[in-house]
Amino acid sequence: MVIKIQDLRNVAGDLMAKAAIEIPQDYLDGLKKAAASEEGELSSFVLQAMLDNYEAAKEDRRAMCGDTGVPRWFVKLGNEARVEGGMVALEEALRRATAEATTGVPLRPNRVHPLWRTDHDNNVGIGAPEIEYGFEPEGDWIDLITVHKGGLFGTDYRMLFPSDGIQGIKRFYLDSLVAFGKRGLACQPAIIGIGLGGSKDICMTLGKRASTLRIVGSRNSDPRIAELEDEFMELGNSIGMGAMGFVGKNMVIDCNIEVGYCHTGGMPMSVHAFCLSSRRAVARIWPDGRVEHRTDPDWFTPYQRRDTVDWPLQQEAAE
Amino acid sequence: MKLREIRLSTTPSAEDIAQLRLGDIVYLDGLMYTAREGVYMRALEGKANIPMELPSESAANFHCSPAATIRSDGSFDMGAVTATASFRFAKWLPEWMAKTGARLIVGKGGMTSRDYKEYFVPNGAVYLSTVGYGTGALLGRGVENVEAVHWNEELGLAQAMWVLKCNKMGPFIVASDLNGDCLFERENAKIAEGLHRVYEGTRPATLKRYGETDDRSDEVI
């Protein structure tokens, strides 16, 4: 059975609005905790204003932030999923949903040509929105995930080496947080994503996905990496900097680390900040038209983190 | 909480501005226009006539592109509004202020105290920062009406000059004063005092970046 293209169109439109308007519950819970613990006078005022802002956005059904980021899509398909009209039809549906939401919500038409600054006023253009894919060994469903991350500050990349070690990783982490935390350019407190390893481009991808596709409170399945996540969250919150770069103690709502195998001589690292308006929305669509909305992209499954040549399909089915 | 709250006109008097202190919370009333690189380039480098009477109609320049659209009947749908980082506009601001009499520059992240001392203070102007960032929905509620959108054809929706009628629009934070002092630099200095403790034991990168320093009072703007 195929998944109907009209179902995908409808859900994509809903997700665009949801992402722009509704702060995900996991981030909201994290921010409320931060607001309760914040002692800096200005930082506290800022966090309270943000909590008021989420309410106002939901009540008025207007975008929570005037900068509605750069909309993009992550698509996860179960191995048996088939789309009416094929993947080209799906991509058209996602591009159309992006364009229509730009006037419908409305969103800020952020996407322009890098040189000629051409703006189609609809967030669609060359390579925009980005659409990336992942697969799972079982299932006839599609997960649509939209993320509207801010685009300018809070992200950096560096080629480190094995000799840099954990203390070198910490240094670059702190450098990135302090550099973009000053004046609040990173719009912290944020979900900090760290990518370690991979080739250079994938290192960036891993970090971006760590910040946008994992929820507050989640931990890496490798217990030693999970420990580092706890440690790095605490380290970031001990800088003494809060919202807007004012004196405070809440810089990091959570820290997520994702890894990929890299060149034996290197240890590339990227740092990303998913901001006070952590815009993401997720839904699963089945061929029978069922739709299930959720806030957890659940991207990093055991299959996504596999380190073997094959994946025993039958064995999983038997379990 | 002992933060002061102030209602301020977008055509403020010299006395109104003189009373503002770093960290005051401000709500704006009156007309405010958006202008960023597109408007600055067109008005200053392209010498186009500015389509408003400035500063009599408004002395408040918002570094902003709204999440808004123009409906097919020509009316406006204004959703959320938040500011964009102002330091990128330092190149044009001295000339813009001289030409338009802007006294409230409203944006994200502020400018440097050097900017404030060199051309804000002589023009009797201060910087107001948006809060968050960003309280886009709250600020959107403070827009009573979109009075006009200028240069939309030429610059696109994001760079156009939006004229907003503000009604207790806010909150904003006073980030510079008539001494030329900078709120963000004040906070940075306090935070910098404790940074060496946080960095203790960490290791400088094996491969340096050309031009890299270890001065932690440095900023990226």
Automatic annotation (TrEMBL), chain A:
Claim: Iron-sulfur is one of the keywords in the record: yes
Entry-linked InterPro entries: Class-I_Fumarase/Tartrate_DH (IPR051208), Fe-S_hydro-lyase_TtdA-typ_cat (IPR004646)
Pfam family, one: Fumerase
Top EC class of this enzyme: lyase
Domain Fe-S hydro-lyase tartrate dehydratase alpha-type catalytic: 12-283
Keyword tags: 4Fe-4S, Iron, Iron-sulfur, Lyase, Metal-binding
An MF annotation (GO) of this entry: metal ion binding
EC code(s) of this entry: 4.2.1.2
Family from the record: Belongs to the class-I fumarase family.
Protein name as catalogued: Fumarate hydratase class I, aerobic
From TrEMBL, chain B:
Annotated EC: 4.2.1.2
Domain of life: Bacteria
Principal EC category: lyase
Keywords in alphabetical order: Lyase
Domain Fe-S hydro-lyase tartrate dehydratase beta-type catalytic: start-end pairs: 4-185
Gene3D superfamilies, alphabetized: Fe-S hydro-lyase, tartrate dehydratase beta-type, catalytic domain (3.20.130.10)
One GO MF term: fumarate hydratase activity
Family, as annotated: Belongs to the class-I fumarase family.
Protein name: Fumarate hydratase class I, aerobic
The organism of origin for this protein: Candidatus Rhodobacter oscarellae
Organism lineage: Bacteria, Pseudomonadati, Pseudomonadota, Alphaproteobacteria, Rhodobacterales
